[in-house]
Amino acid sequence: MPDLHPSIYLDNAATSFPKPPEVVETMHRLLQEISLSPGRSAHRFSLAASRVIFEARELVADFFGCPDSSRVVFTSNVTEALNVGLFGLLAPGDQVLTTGMEHNSVMRPLRHLEKTRGIVLTFLPTDPTGAIDPEDIPKLLSARTRLIIINHVSNVTGTLADLVAIGKVKGEALLMVDAAQSAGVFPLEMQAFGIDFLAFTGHKGLFGPTGTGGFILRKGLMVPPLKMGGTGSNSEQEEQPQMMPDCYESGTPNTLGIGGLFAGLAFIKRTGLETIRCHEEQLTRLLLAGLSQIKGLTVHGPPASANRGSAVSLTMADRSVADLALLLDRHFGIMARAGFHCAPAAHRSIGTFPQGTLRLSPGFFNTAVEIQAVIAALDKISATH
Ligand SMILES: Cc1ncc(COP(=O)(O)O)c(C=O)c1O
C-alpha cells in the first residue's frame, strides 16, 4: 500500500479525516466479532449485529430530533438517500423550488426528472456568496409546488441556509434538506425546523466511514422505495414489506459501517456540537483573515463575519486552481481540492465557472498552526508568479 499519511489534510468537505479513534476501534472490534448479517438468522451473533444497527438508528433519530427511530433509513451515502426522495416524491407536472448551489447528487436527479417526468424546476435567486433570501420563496410558490430542496451548507462556499426561516414560508410544499455538509456541525432538528425529508451522509461531519448515510422521513410521509429485495422481515411474502424502515433497506446492511457511524455520533455527543462548530469557526475565521492579505487571491463565498460552514473557495490570478492544488500537495504537504466539487451549477451561480475553485475545508482535527501553514504556503505561491 502506498504511504497515504497526510501532512495537512484540508479536504474535510470531501470526507472527514482522520476519524476519531473510537470509530476505528469500534469498526475493528465489529469486524473481528460480529461482521455478519443482521436481522436474518436468530443466532446470537446475528442478534448482536441487529442490536448495533438498532442502537445506531436510535442515536441518529435522537441526534436529528426525530421522536421515532423507525423513520430513520440507512443508505450507502446521501446521494442514495436524495435519490430515494426525489424519485419517490416527484410526479409529472410537479414544481420544485431549488437553488443554483446544489450538489450534483440533487441536480442530476432533478435534471433527469425534468426530462423524463416533466417536473418544473424553479431556481431561487442567489447573491454572489450563494445565499438565498427565504422571503423569495412565497413569491415563487404555486399550487403545483411539491418540494423545496436545498443544501443546508454549500460544499463550495460554506454558505449556510436559514432552514428555520425557510420552514416558516414553505406553505404546502415539502421541505427536503441535503445535510451532507452541515450534519455534525450545525444543529438540525427535524421536527422543530419543519423538515419533511432529511438526507445525511455518514462520512463527513458525522465522522463515520464511507459507505454510510441515510434519510429521515417525517411521520405520515411515505415514498416508494428505489430498490426491493430481502429485508429479513416478512420473508414468507414475495411482496416488498410496507413497514418502516424495512421497505427501504433491502439487501444485507453495512453493519460495520453503521457501527462506525454510531461511534462517530457518540464522539460528537461526547465532544459537543457547539465545541466542534466553534473550533471549525475559529479555524475558518483565521483562514479567511489570512487569505484576505494575499495579493491576487480572491475568496468566493460569505465573509468571516457570517454564520457559515468551513468550506472556503478561492482563486488566484494567473494560476489555475489545479496548479494550486498540485503545488500545495507536492511542495507543502497540504491536501486540498480543485475543480467543481461536483457542483457545476454553484460555480455558475458565484461566477467561477469554468475555472472552478481551490477549496480548503478545515475540520475538527485541524489546528491553528496548520491553518497558518496553509496561509504561508499560498502567500509564497502568490509571490512566485
Ligand atoms: C452538499 C453535498 N451534497 C451531497 C454530497 C454527496 O455526498 P455522498 O458522496 O456522500 O453521497 C456531497 C459530497 O460532497 C455534498 O457536499
What is the structure about, briefly put?
By secondary structure, the chain is α/β, with parallel strands linked by helices.
The main sheet comes to:
7 strands, mixed
CATH architecture annotation of the largest domain = 3-Layer(aba) Sandwich
Please report the distance between the alpha carbons of the first and last residues.
36 Å
**Share of helical residues:** 25-40%
* Overall average residue pLDDT: 95
Approximate shape = globular
Describe this structure in words.
It is built from eleven helices and 13 strands. It has 385 residues and is of the alpha/beta class. It has helices at residues 21-33, 44-63, 78-89, 104-116, 137-140, 163-169, 255-271, 273-291, 321-332, 344-350, 368-383, and strands at residues 8-9, 72-75, 95-99, 120-124, 145-151, 174-178, 197-201, 213-217, 297-300, 312-316, 334-335, 337-339, 357-360. The strands form three sheets. The protein has a seven-stranded mixed β-sheet with strand order 2-8-7-6-5-3-4, with helices on both faces. Strands 9-10-13-12 form a four-stranded antiparallel β-sheet, covered by helices on one side. A two-stranded parallel ribbon has the order 1-11. Helix 9 (321-332) crosses helix 11 (368-383). The protein has two domains: 8-18 and 273-383, Aspartate Aminotransferase, domain 1 (Alpha-Beta Complex); 21-271, Type I PLP-dependent aspartate aminotransferase-like (Major domain) (Aspartate Aminotransferase, domain 2), CATH 3.40.640.10. 50% of the residues are buried. Bound molecules: pyridoxal-5'-phosphate. Residues 77-79, 103, 105, 151, 155, 178, 180-181, 201, 213, 342 line the site of pyridoxal-5'-phosphate (PLP).
